[in-house]
């Protein structure tokens, strides 16, 4: 008889919003760090004792705790889940007073099967147990001066004076060295992985690392998330129940995917021209989950970073899943109505704004761009959507998301679009702004007429519809409006 387990998962709700709810990078770092520490294996083991063990079948991710215990008598099961949840919630609450947590559980032979058939559907239906921050004991307490969210519990010295802080902001009010030196924090781990000087103290200092032409006051916020992992895991869980080899492959694949995320982050960070020039960390990671990443970096580095990350992640995941994918697709071919699976990829949302723009709004906008990118390609291709808040305002962008393959060809060769963008970047910025105005006012032909007059028609021609079939898309796959937007932060070759 095969043994079955009860799996109990814990996670933070809207974690990116929570981490970035205070104004300064110092507070975000402290919260990221506390979260990583609180959810580290050793801390969780200490809390749960003999009640459960760490679930090694799931991949590693910040802010996520996965536990399991052998299924025993049914009357005892729910009580044990409840006790576990009480313990873990209390522990997380102590460390992260202002966060919201949830927990979901289910039982079965393997984590992936339980995840695909029980945990994910339950979470989707909202059948989870929530743990919310306690409401104020004294309703008349002054609000916290840092987050303006929770009531203050005391007055504390901060960098410049003293402030009334809530419990959560008090946790965030620690010196920088305490958080960056920690090897569990996303930033500490990245530093340890690639060995560079630490990133600057604040977001304005980070923006100041950009090139002279960038104005040195703009940052990009990049949110990345894997595509179609749910579909893949579900297929794996279904076929795994009939195939021994697939069953054993499952646990390895989970950790191979979180490894691919970390490796892609390291490679994309190391390969930035700015990193090489300064030998300093120029990317500040806020969240690094299983296949889920949120970072800030100087605006003029964002396209390098994003395209390299997506390509590197796709390549590594492809390698790690190739064998299993082939086997799965052979099995699926025998079953009518099941389409062949594509290897999972990742998509990105990129938002450009001034360094002083609140990070919580940027992280929310980057998340929305990420959803647009995923939706546009049904999660079946690596894709990207972006927004430049300074140039275009905070509303959803007018241009459609792009597939990664339009901007980057395999093996880092230039695509026709990337080549054309390198040409467009050479047109002076003031002139590109005029072309954008002409495009918005009169359409592509008006813009083309102006470009022709000043001798830049060749630079914009690849982004114009072919003449005379004006309703056809441009040959390089990007329209002029999107190209002018991309060119603002496109790296000069
Ligand atoms: Zn606060």
UniProtKB/TrEMBL annotation:
Residues 219-376 form the Cas10/Cmr2 second palm domain. Gene3D superfamilies: 3.30.70.270. Keywords: Antiviral defense, Nucleotide-binding. This is Cas10/Cmr2 second palm domain-containing protein. It comes from Streptomyces sirii.
